[in-house]
Amino acid sequence: MKRIVLTTLAIMMAAGMVFASGQGESGAIDIGIAMPETHVERWQRDGAALLQGAQDLGYRAEVTYGNADQGLQNEQIQNMITKGAKVLIVGNINEGVNSVVSEAAQEGIIVIAYDRLITGSDDYDYYITFDNFKVGEFQGQAIADALDLDNASSDDPKYITLFAGSPTDNNANFFFDGAMSILRPYVEQGVLEVVGPAPMDSSSPDFTRIATENWRPEVAKARMENLLSNDALNVTLDAVLAPNDTLARAIIEALSADAKYDTTEELPVVTGQDAELASVQMIRDGEQYMTVFKDTRDLAAGAVALADALLKGEDTPSIDGARLDTETYDTGLKVVNSYLLEPINVTSDNWEAVMVGSGYYSASDFE
Ligand code: GAL
Fold first, then answer.
1. What mean pLDDT is reported for the chain?
2. Which atom of ligand 1 lies closest to the CA of 294?
3. How far does residue 313's CA lie from ligand 1's centre (Å)?
4. All domains of the chain, ordered by start, with CATH?
5. How confident is the model over 238-243, as a mean pLDDT?
6. Strand bridging mode 61-65 / 239-241
7. Beta carbon of 276 within 6 Å of any ligand 1 atom
8. Which of 85, 104, 183, 302 has a CA 20 to 30 Å removed from the CA of 286?
9. pLDDT tens for residues 168-208?
C-alpha cells in the first residue's frame, strides 16, 4: 500500500503539482519546502518528512517538487513568499535559484539550503546535508576493497570507468573528489586504469564529460551504452564509479544488455548512494555492489529543528545528530554555517541490519 501511495504521489508531483498541505484558511504558510524533483526517489521521502515535521511543530507548511526545472521551482518559491513564508527550505536544481533567494532575503525570509549548497549567493546563512566527501570516500574504498587494489599489479591492471552526478549540483564535486581521493593513487601506480574520460578531480576540464545532467538515468544509460561500443569495447570492466542509485541502476541495465556482463557474476563492481529500495534489493541480489544510506528522516528532522530554532530567534543553534562546520562550505561569495550528518556505508554484508534494522524499510519490502 505504501508504495502505491508513493507512486501516486510521484505522478502528481512529476506534473509539477504543488503537494500542499497544512495551509491556513487564507492559504498562508509559515514554512515553504521546495524539493528539486521526484525522478530520484529519495526527494519524495524528504518532502513528505519535512512537511510532516513542520506540521508536527504546529507550523503551516507546503511542499513542492520542481521536476528538475529551476524556472518552475522559482515560481513555486515565489508563491511561497507571496503566502507569507517565514522560512524556505530549498533543495535547488541549479544557481538559477539565486534570484528568488535574493527576493526572500529582501523580505527578511530565512533560507536554508537543503542537501545541496546554493552556490553563487550570499543571501542566506544555513546549509544542512550529509558529509558528502565521505560518501565519495565510501564509494572509492568499496572499489579498492572489491578489486583488492592494494595487491593488484600494473602488469595486469584493473579497469574502471567513471560517472559523476549533475554538473549543476555542488554535491557531485564532493562525491567525485571523495572517491578519487581513494582511487587516484592506484591510477598513478598503474594498477587501476580508467576507460573513457579520466578526470582525477572535479576541477578537471574532463569532469563535465563524465557528469550526468540533472542526474537523469536515461543520460547515464546512453553514455554507458556508448562506452561499451567504443572505449570499453575491447576491455572487460572491473568497476564503474556510479555516483547514486538511480544512475547505478541505469548503468547496470546497459551493462546487463552486453554479452560480456549478462550474468550477475560478470557484472563489474557498481557503486551508488541514497539506499533506494530497488538498489538495496539489487545489493541483496549481488547486482549492485554498494550504496550509501543518508537517512532522509534525520536530514528532514534536522532541517525542521533548525528552522524552528531560527524562527524562535536562535542564531546558529546546535542540531542533534549534525556536526556544525563553519569553515568548509563556500558559496563562492560567503562561507555558510553547515550542518553535516553522518552517512552509512551499505553492502551485501550489512544491508538488512542497516535498512530493515533502522526501520527505513520493512522486511516485507524484500520478500
Ligand atoms: C544529490 C544528493 C544525492 C542524490 C542526488 C540525486 O544532491 O546529495 O543524495 O539524491 O542529488 O538527486
1. 94
2. 9
3. 30
4. 2-124+295-341 (3.40.50.2300), 132-293 (3.40.50.2300)
5. 98
6. unpaired
7. no
8. 183
9. 999 999 999 999 999 999 999 999 999 999 999 999 999 99
